[in-house]
Amino acid sequence: MTSHTNTNAAPTIAIIGAGLSGLVCARILQRAGLAVTVYEADADVAARQQGGDLDIHSDTGQIALRQAGLYNEFLKNTIAGAEAVRIMDKTAHVFIDHPEAAGGHGRPEIKRTVLRELLVDSLESGSIHWGSKVVAVRPAEPGHELEFADGTVVHADLVIGADGAWSKVRPLLTPVDPAYVGITMVEIRISDSANRHPDARALVGDGSLFALSDHRYIGGHGGDEMALGLGFRVPEDWSTASGVDWADAASARTALLAEFGDWATPFTDLIRNCNDTIWPRPIYALPTGTSWEHVPGVTLAGDAAHVMSPFAGEGANLALIDGADLARAILSGGDLDASLADYERKIIRRGAKSAAASAKSLDMLFNDKAPKQLVRMFGTMFLLGRLASPLTRLFRRTESVD
């Protein structure tokens, strides 16, 4: 493909995926006066569960939101008290119960749905083509063709794959696919916990809960709308081969109670009292350090570039800063593909570091001695008066929404 930046015409830009990375990239490009179209398979912004709360880091996600001109709106929607940390084992013994420090720890929380809607609403009307599922991306000099499920074909000079773990764009750059990490997480919600389930609210609190024992985990984020994950080591096909009807709450609860049968009643009551919609999610990750050579006219951001397990709490923040860095590369002037190649080298290095931390954290959390290592780590940080670890929010689904 011929480089775009040596011509007077701006490239036609197609972003595949209306997750955090694609949206923040589109927002920054539009603020600079560049036209961009986002194609999203979901029918609308509320079509799919978008995960729980996110802690937004000062050195990544917050930078991206500042560049998008949305930082003040973000602050207005953060959650008070959400940076508290509680660590327990299966007997409900409390090892650490640390409240949110005055002024927080520098990683304010926001609901993923709220952040995504904030980004969606910031774009020009009509920028997002909802219900547009990409089924193929093909080179078509110059640029690429996008084929959609309804048979429509469109052309773009620059295609940005921001379409998550199972990206349709990534195969243009690398044949490597995500692999199962050995852990399945099952997501549950408990709504209106203060009124309907005060015992659950008291157990989890307002911040992050880490309950760990015997290669199993219950935790996530508290508050009035509790978003929790139950994790355990099972085969990749456990959620389908086990015969559980996940659309039937009773069947799902029975399966989960069997996995956590020797846990204290306060924990198993979380399963008994959760909302009826329950989601099993096998966790996948690209091999740490996955890289590629730049292909003219196409690039990646967010999970499409470096999907990893959620155990470093970095996925959403990487998605945001990827999107911001990509927008800056596009707007930098000079040769576009050279700028994109520089951008890709940067996000590959950054993603490899976070992926390694995620893999290390997985092993720390899912072992015979948990939560001892986690307790020591947090205890040291609290003693030093800082909470700098990416593990401050373990269960942050980065998966396909980015």
What does this structure look like?
The protein is of the alpha/beta class and 402 residues long. It is 33% helix and 21% strand. The strands form four sheets. The chain has a seven-stranded mixed beta sheet with strand order 5-4-13-14-15-12-16, with helices on both faces. Strands 7-2-1-11-17 form a five-stranded parallel beta sheet. Strand 4 and strand 5 (94-98) form a beta hairpin. Helix 11 (315-331) runs antiparallel to helix 12 (336-365). The relative contact order is 0.19.
Q: Which of globular, elongated, flat, extended, rod-shaped describes the shape? A: globular
Q: What is the first-to-last residue Cα distance?
A: 27 Å
Q: Number of helical segments?
A: 13
SSE-based structural type:
alpha/beta
* Cross-sheet strand order for the largest sheet: 5-4-13-14-15-12-16
For the secondary structure, the number of strands is 17
**Unreliable parts:** 1-8, 387-402
Question: What's a concise summary of this model?
Answer:
This protein is of the alpha/beta class. Helices cover 33% and strands 21% of the residues.
Topology:
Elements (H helix, E strand, L loop, with lengths): L12 E4 L3 H12 L5 E3 L13 E3 L5 H7 L3 H6 L8 E4 L5 E5 L10 E3 H11 L5 E2 L4 E6 L4 E5 L4 E4 L1 E4 L17 E12 L2 H4 L1 H7 L3 E6 L2 E6 L4 E8 L4 H4 L7 H11 L5 H8 L6 E7 L12 E3 L2 H4 L8 H17 L4 H30 L6 H12 L19
Parallel strand pairs: 1-2, 1-11, 2-7, 4-13, 11-17
Antiparallel strand pairs: 3-6, 4-5, 8-9, 9-10, 12-15, 12-16, 13-14, 14-15
Key phrases:
402 residues, alpha/beta, seven-stranded mixed beta sheet, five-stranded parallel beta sheet, disordered N terminus
